[in-house]
Amino acid sequence: MIELGVNIDHVATLRQARRTYEPDPLWAAMEAELGGADGITVHLREDRRHINDRDVQLLRQTVQCKLNLEMSLAADVVEIAIKTKPAQATLVPEKREEITTEGGLDLTQNQEHVAETVRRLKDAGVFVSAFIDPDEIQISIAGSQGFDAVELHTGGYANASSDVLDEQLHRLKRAGQWVREHGMRLHAGHGLNYRNVTPVAGIPLMAELNIGHAIVSRAIFVGLREAVVEMKRIMVAAAAASEQPQPVALSGNSGILHYERKSQRGK
Ligand code: PXP
């Protein structure tokens, strides 16, 4: 069944606005889990502008579903990831001046360094994903560098005007096929919301969507647990309606990754 990773960075952003203790991302993680989140996603940025080292350590100890650590290739962050051993790490590009992650990681650059980082994380038992644009060359390099999964950057689709929306969706579908042909798990994220998520959740074998801004925004009005319930309901309905094969489930932050090989379909 398709999985939802809830990105709670914005909860930490609100806390940091006053440099106080609330709202605590740990409370958010618990509420999201109670709403049916399959994963909790946090980005430990090099400038620690929202999520900090303490959050990552405590989330690692308390999150019962999958903790997905978004991270750059910065040496100190890689060390933290290797020590902390989240269930999953997603390698992302990072620029200090950006408001949020812009564009995917360019895997044509620093190929040896990226491959070495993937290897070190995998040796530590971490499932490793690459956040990349839906381009054939990027997907092919991700396959050769040993990534377990690819998270397709859906920003182009999310920001598309109606005249190019179909084209952008087609691009994601084609890229999804390449990801699977290279034997990697298919993830997607960025800019997905309650209105645009259905076609992406319906892409064949889409295994995981990581969504933050839309869920945290809705949570202001309906509460985080309910916001997660609503998003999960839309995603699961979309995946079921697409009549596509269902992906293998992957969850758990206990150090052991649980694979459910049976399809949910037909049960
Ligand atoms: N996936 C990745 C790799 C991201 O960097 C982000 C943004 O932090 C997201 C997903 C979630 O994007 P959004 O907040 O637009 O839902």
Description:
There is one protein chain. The protein has 267 residues and is of the alpha/beta class. It has a single domain, classed as Aldolase class I (TIM Barrel), CATH 3.20.20.70. The protein is 43% helix and 17% strand. The chain has 11 helices and 10 strands. The chain has helices spanning 9-18, 25-34, 53-62, 75-84, 111-123, 136-144, 155-158, 165-181, 197-201, 213-222, 224-241; strands at 3-7, 39-43, 66-71, 88-91, 127-132, 149-153, 185-189, 208-211, 249-251, 258-260. A hairpin with a 6-residue loop joins strand 9 and strand 10 (258-260). Pyridoxine-5'-phosphate (PXP) binds at residues 7, 9, 43, 70, 90, 92, 100-101, 131, 151, 189-192, 210-214. Pyridoxine-5'-phosphate is lined by residues 7, 9, 43, 70, 90, 92, 100-101, 131, 151, 189-192, 210-214.
Task: Give a quick rundown of the structure.
This protein has about 270 residues and is α/β, with parallel strands linked by helices. It is built from eleven helices and ten strands.
So what's the overall shape? globular
The main β sheet shows up as: 8 strands, parallel, barrel
Structural class: alpha/beta
* Proportion of residues in β-strands: 15-25%
The SSE order reads EHHEHEHEHEHEHHEHEHHEE
The counted number of beta strands is: 10
Query: Can you tell me the CATH topology?
Result: TIM Barrel
What's the rounded overall pLDDT mean? 92
State the separation between the terminal residues, measured CA to CA: 12 Å
DSSP helix fraction: 40-55%
CATH class: Alpha Beta
Strand neighbour order, sheet with most strands: 1-2-3-4-5-6-7-8
Q: Count the helices. How many?
A: 11
CATH architecture annotation name: Alpha-Beta Barrel
- Fourth-level CATH superfamily: Aldolase class I
Low-pLDDT stretches are 254-267
Number of domains: 1
Radius of gyration: 17 Å
Ligand catalogue: pyridoxine-5'-phosphate
